[in-house]
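Archive maintenance. Older records in this collection stored only the sequence; we are now back-filling the structure field for every entry so that each record is complete. The fields below show one back-filled record exactly as it appears after the update. Entries are processed alphabetically, and S-formylglutathione hydrolase is next in the queue.

ARCHIVE ENTRY
Title: S-formylglutathione hydrolase
Organism field: Terricaulis silvestris
Length field: 275
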Amino acid sequence: MEIRAQHRVHGGTLTYAQHQSAATGTPMRLSVFTPPGEGPFPYLIWLSGLTCTEDNFTTKAGAYGAAAQHRVAIVAPDTSPRGECVADDPAYDLGQGAGFYIDATQAPWTPHFKMESYITRDLITTVEAAFPLAPKRSIFGHSMGGHGALTLAMKYPELFKSVSAFAPISSPTRCSWGEKAFTAYLDPNRDTWRAHDAALLIEVGRANSFDDILVDQGTGDQFLENQLRPELLEQAAAKAGQKLTLRRQEGYDHSYFFMASFVADHVAFHAARLA
Ligand SMILES: N[C@@H](CCC(=O)N[C@@H](CSC=O)C(=O)NCC(=O)O)C(=O)O
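Back-filled structure field:
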């Protein structure tokens, strides 16, 4: 783990770092906030959205006061592998900055776009060895990262105590962001896509180890109707008898101002389940 910068914040320590990932075959950047004291601390993994790096949440979400108060750490990784030898696309919603938290099986993405394995293996192993973190984690995220948090929690319930999301892509098989990414990264047989779709996973009961799922969605979000479609999460949860608390927040948009307004509620939601 190479430390790139450290800052004191809310009595704790914010570290920007980089490490080599076996899954992506590239260096991966991240930030880690640890609260005041010695630890080991339970922690939250935050997954960001399209176009983001490890820096968007770190500088804009304003989460560290609540994290210090609840004595939880927060780990925020980058959203994809990066570099000159890594495949990319000129569009903002594919390639670097748009890893979708899945393992690609199609050329030219296969060698490096392994974000599911990166988050669930390399990231967890590395941060728990390098920082005072307990092996007790939860996961949350925004938009593409909300999709990542929901799907990784349901695919790996043994790794995560709880899950929440801000304005998640609810059903990537039923929106253009998701269809574009899955067409590029995954097998053309759309049946294989179902394993990476949050609403479809909830519908078949894959969230049943979670007592509740917290989702905040702004009603002024420019992506609400075409991409995010939170009603699909609600319908799936109702079918499966899964508790899902979907809060429609009047007038909030898709920006980090929305996250900053409600992130303390998400930190408290997870801290109660990590205690
Ligand atoms: N046209 C915009 C679209 C990118 C955007 O809105 N990204 C969101 C996440 S969208 C879903 O995953 C974001 O978090 N942006 C970063 C930020 O700091 O707000 C563009 O090209 O930027």
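Update note: The CA atoms of residues 29 and 158 lie 25 Å apart. Strands lie at 2-9, 12-20, 27-34, 41-47, 73-77, 133-142, 163-166, 214-218, 245-249.
Entry marked complete.
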